[in-house]
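Private note to self, pasted from the team thread so I don't lose it. Backbone tokens:
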């Protein structure tokens, strides 16, 4: 944008003397009033002081940008003053800032979200260039300053680099101004040293200008200039690293470049065949892959919440039952009631919004978190459960993805837009769609699924249990297992507690089977397998299937069918008897929380089914391994005469 269009030589004063911040602001307000830009000096002055009370308007390097949004402003404009003696008491982001250049922005109230942000970001971006600021400060007259505002820089000749490459990441808590200003400061400092500097901005818009694998392989060092945790720092493992705050490049970017070069000199990079590196800057993920990753991301984030909430609720129930404290458990405000509410709220209130939010996050990064949470809350409001939460997560993610593609900005302003426009528009859009367009159909579909599940009995229930059992042990914590988990949690959230009881029982089968096989059929398994087998039963008690993964990887064609067979039997039995469980993640403690049958009968069926399934899988594991070893031995014996004949 042209800065000259928002000011004039009459609004620019050079070499002024002020004794305080208030005096400087009052002077510039008077200038705006005399130029006819505001119709009330006092009203606008109060709005500027109100803004000053909220947060510092002093920046770095002698700059201050006070501003006011008021009905007293006729048209957007700004007044400028340079001072002879720096103002020392101006509250600034940099506590050592001594203000020499003041730009007072006057913004009409109705333009607060547009002109204000555009002008502010443009000024901050230009001020990151020391040459631009130097031209302004050297201006001796108002006309000279006015001309320097939009004076085009002489195009820099390509600087001959010395072959060094430094990568950088900048990130600030808000992800707005400092993220981009620090990036520009590092790039400019790099040019002074003849060093190529590439900066990845991790701001309000997610990751911008992401460093590619080839760039990382060619780099000599990396600079982390961040006040928040850097995303995916493992990408830069092995590179010499400089870690500092996001404000440091604004104060002394040259020192950071020097430090990075010195570290690179002490620990030079190893030569890598860059051509052999498969880069990651090709086409975007396919729609199918994006959907799958989104679901897996959402599930991975809700698992800790489900486990923590489930175990908290299980603890409250177990204490109440073990010590006869059912009355305390039911009494509002009691310690057991509060624990019950804590666990229940994690499961009933947080679960779906977290699923939606991180599904959206997987698709469109940080700007999608707010709309994703809104989609989950909307799903709870309309009673659409997990089904609505997942659909809401997709909607939020793709709405933000559309906005990021079609409403693009650059420089400092991109942070402001990402921080405000994307989340607000995304939240309103996905909220309106969820609540007023697809809410009733989703709720009807969810209720229909609940009624169908509730109506399952006999043979139909057995089929469902068998399918769930097979899915649990098919990949032991992989996508198929997670799909079964999602279905069971969704059914539980909707009021049907049978599927999760079957799921929880089946989770013990693979672990128990591996332990049993390595003890009873010890001679058929290697020493490492026997050591693993000694521990898997403990994982099974906690409901963890991953302990059997080493066996599955070594011999998938025999192990997977063996585990599926026993798991399917377990799932079918639990489902047939209608045993239910409404607390997820409780492991063996689920025995005391089972429903659908008298407690002792339910516990016997639930644990007995797991043991029976484990027995079946154990026998199959031993038989298939024995058969495998027999075939290997026979093949070896047949090969031996051939080798002897060849030798002779």
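Design output:
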């Amino acid at each position: 944008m042209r800065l000259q269009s928002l000011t004039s030589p009459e609004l620019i004063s050079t070499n002024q003397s002020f004794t305080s911040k208030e005096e400087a602001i009052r002077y510039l307000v008077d200038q705006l009033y005399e130029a006819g830009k505001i119709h009330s000096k006092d009203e606008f002055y109060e709005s500027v002081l109100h803004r000053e009370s909220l947060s510092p308007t002093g920046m770095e390097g002698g700059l201050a940008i006070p501003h006011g949004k008021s009905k007293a402003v006729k048209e957007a404009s700004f007044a400028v003053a340079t001072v002879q003696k720096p103002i020392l008491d101006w509250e600034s982001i940099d506590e050592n800032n001594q203000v020499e250049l003041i730009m007072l922005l006057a913004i009409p109230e109705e333009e607060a979200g547009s002109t204000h942000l555009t002008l502010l970001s443009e000024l901050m971006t230009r001020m990151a260039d020391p040459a631009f600021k130097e031209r302004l400060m050297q201006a001796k007259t108002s006309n000279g300053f006015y001309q320097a505002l939009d004076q085009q820089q002489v195009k820099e000749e390509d600087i001959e680099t010395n072959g060094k490459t430094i990568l950088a990441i900048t990130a600030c808590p808000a992800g707005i101004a400092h993220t981009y200003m620090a990036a520009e400061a590092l790039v400019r400092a790099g040019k002074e040293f003849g060093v190529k500097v590439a900066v990845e901005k991790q701001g309000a818009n997610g990751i911008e200008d992401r460093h590619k694998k080839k760039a990382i392989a060619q780099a000599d060092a990396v600079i982390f200039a961040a006040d928040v945790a850097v995303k995916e720092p493992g990408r830069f493992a092995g590179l010499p690293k400089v870690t500092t705050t996001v404000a440091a490049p604004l104060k002394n970017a040259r020192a950071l470049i020097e430090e990075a070069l010195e570290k690179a000199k002490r620990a030079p990079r190893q030569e890598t065949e860059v051509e052999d590196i498969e880069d990651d800057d090709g086409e975007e993920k396919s729609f199918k892959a994006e959907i799958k990753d989104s679901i897996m991301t959402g599930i991975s984030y809700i698992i800790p919440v489900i486990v923590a909430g489930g175990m908290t609720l299980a603890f409250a129930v177990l204490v109440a039952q073990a010590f006869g404290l059912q009355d305390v458990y039911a009494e509002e405000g009691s310690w057991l009631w509060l624990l019950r509410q804590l666990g229940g709220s994690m499961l009933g209130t947080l679960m779906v919004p977290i699923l939606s939010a991180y599904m959206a996050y997987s698709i469109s990064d940080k700007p999608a978190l707010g709309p994703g949470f809104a989609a989950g809350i909307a799903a709870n409001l309309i009673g659409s459960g997990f089904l609505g939460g997942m659909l809401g997560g997709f909607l939020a993610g793709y709405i933000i993805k559309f906005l990021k593609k079609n409403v693009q900005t650059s420089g400092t302003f991109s942070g402001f837009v990402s921080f405000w426009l994307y989340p607000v528009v995304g939240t309103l859009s996905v909220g309106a769609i969820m609540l007023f367009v697809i809410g009733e159909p989703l709720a009807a579909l969810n209720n229909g699924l609940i009624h169908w599940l509730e109506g399952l009995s006999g043979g139909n229930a057995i089929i469902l249990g068998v399918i769930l059992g097979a899915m649990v042990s098919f990949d032991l914590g992989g996508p198929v297992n997670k799909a079964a988990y999602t279905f069971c949690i969704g059914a539980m959230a909707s009021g049907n507690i049978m599927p999760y009881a079957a799921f929880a029982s089946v989770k013990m089968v693979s672990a128990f089977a591996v332990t049993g096989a390595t003890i009873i059929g010890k001679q058929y398994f290697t020493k490492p397998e026997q050591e693993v087998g000694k521990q898997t039963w403990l994982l099974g008690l906690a409901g963890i299937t991953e302990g059997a993964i080493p066996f599955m990887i070594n011999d998938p064609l025999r192990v997977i069918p063996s585990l599926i067979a026993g798991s399917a039997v377990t799932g079918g039995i639990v489902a047939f008897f209608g045993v239910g469980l409404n607390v997820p993640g409780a492991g063996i403690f689920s025995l005391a929380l089972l429903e659908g049958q008298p407690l002792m009968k339910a516990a016997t069926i639930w644990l007995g089914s797991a043991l029976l399934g484990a027995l079946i899988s154990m026998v199959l594991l031993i038989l298939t391994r024995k058969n495998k070893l027999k075939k290997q031995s026979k093949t070896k014996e047949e090969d031996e005469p051939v080798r002897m004949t060849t030798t002779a």
